[in-house]
Amino acid sequence: MTSKSSYSARNFLIKLQTLPPEQQQQVADFVEFLAQKYSYTPQQKSGRVLGLHKDMGWMSEDFDAPLADEFWLGEL
C-alpha cells in the first residue's frame, strides 16, 4: 500500500467510525455487495453426469414418418 492509499484508508476508517452503527452496517453491506459483484471466481459446474440416463429413452420406428392430414386439420 502506498502512503497515499494508506492515507485514504485511514481517512475512510475515521469517517466510518463517526457514523452511527446502522449506517456503519449499511457501509459494510455495500462493501460486501461490491465484493460479490466484482469477484471473478469461476462458478462451480452443475454436476452433470455424462451418460446418466443412457438407454432410458426410446423413439418409435415411424418417428420421422409424415403425419396424416387429419392431425394437421385437428380432426383427430
From TrEMBL:
Pfam families associated with the record: DUF2281 (PF10047)
InterPro entries named among the record's database cross-references: DUF2281
Top-level division of the source organism's lineage: Bacteria
Domain DUF2281, first and last residues per copy: 15-69
Descriptive protein name: DUF2281 domain-containing protein
